[in-house]
């Protein structure tokens, strides 16, 4: 499997390696032109989120709540069975269902009250079969308030291969934890695999791939 990923900048439409996107977005002339004409007084944060081969860069309003980012991540990558989730920012936990006994706080708090540029934080979805995401607030700008969380760049589908060399389409969840990449199967090998096909899950562009009952979302490319 190729351990590198690429994504396309929405402004210049050029493709960049995942480790080059941060620098590109800070220098992209097409983005600068758009932002220079974006008149407003809303503080807007650029945030990177990801895990392994999966990543996304987004802009969010400082006045948006953490709950709105949580909903975005669920809709993009995570939602399968309505599991609980939480952000961990500094020493604080902001939970989808706060537990006062653990001193949890609500996600209904403005992003601008919890984050500053340069700050790293994390998100977890499903406290049983957990998907952990690392996030970082990269920078801020002033502009017109965004209507919703805006994707600036996102990884293309990684090049997952079956052991036979063909593109992987299915994951055997029984074999996943012991055999790792060998649990990824093309259509032909999936038919010949010794495990029951009822435990297969599809290969999708999400860090939750192969977990719980996750089958992907329509907006995954």
Question: Keyphrases for this structure?
Answer:
8-stranded mixed β-sheet; 17% helix; Structural Genomics Hypothetical 15.5 Kd Protein In mrcA-pckA Intergenic Region, Chain A; 3-stranded antiparallel β-sheet; 221 residues; alpha+beta
Spell out the blueprint of helices and strands.
Elements: E1 6-8, E2 15-17, H1 21-27, H2 29-36, E3 42-51, E4 54-61, H3 66-78, E5 85-89, E6 92-95, E7 105-106, E8 120-125, E9 131-143, E10 150-154, E11 170-172, H4 176-179, E12 184-185, H5 187-192, E13 200-202
Parallel strand pairs: 6-7
Antiparallel strand pairs: 1-2, 3-4, 3-9, 4-10, 5-6, 5-8, 8-9, 11-12, 11-13
Description:
This protein is of the alpha+beta class. The chain folds into two domains: 6-154, Structural Genomics Hypothetical 15.5 Kd Protein In mrcA-pckA Intergenic Region, Chain A (Roll), CATH 3.10.290; 170-202, no CATH class. The chain is built from five helices and 13 strands. The strands form three sheets. The protein has an eight-stranded mixed beta sheet with strand order 7-6-5-8-9-3-4-10, with helices on both faces. Strand 1 and strand 2 (15-17) form a beta hairpin. The chain is flat, with a radius of gyration of 19 Å.
């Amino acid at each position: 499997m190729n351990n590198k990923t690429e994504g396309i900048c929405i402004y210049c439409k050029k493709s960049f390696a995942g480790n080059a996107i941060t620098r590109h977005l800070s220098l992209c002339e097409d983005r600068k032109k758009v932002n220079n004409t974006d008149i407003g007084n809303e503080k807007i944060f650029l945030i990177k989120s990801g895990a392994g081969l999966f990543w996304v860069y987004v802009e969010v309003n400082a006045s948006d709540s953490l709950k709105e980012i949580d909903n975005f991540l669920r809709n993009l990558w995570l939602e399968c069975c309505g599991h609980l989730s939480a952000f961990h920012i500094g020493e604080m936990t902001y939970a989808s269902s706060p537990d006062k006994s653990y001193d949890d706080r609500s996600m209904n708090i403005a992003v601008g009250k919890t984050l500053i540029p340069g700050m790293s934080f994390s998100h977890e979805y499903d406290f049983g079969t957990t998907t952990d995401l690392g996030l970082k607030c990269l920078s801020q700008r002033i502009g017109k308030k965004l209507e919703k969380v805006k994707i600036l760049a996102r990884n293309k589908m990684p090049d997952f291969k079956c052991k036979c060399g063909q593109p992987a389409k299915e994951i055997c969840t029984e074999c996943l934890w012991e055999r790792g990449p060998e649990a990824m199967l093309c259509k032909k090998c999936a038919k010949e695999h010794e495990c029951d096909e009822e435990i297969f899950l599809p290969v999708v562009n999400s860090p939750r791939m192969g977990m719980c009952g996750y089958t992907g979302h329509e907006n995954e490319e």
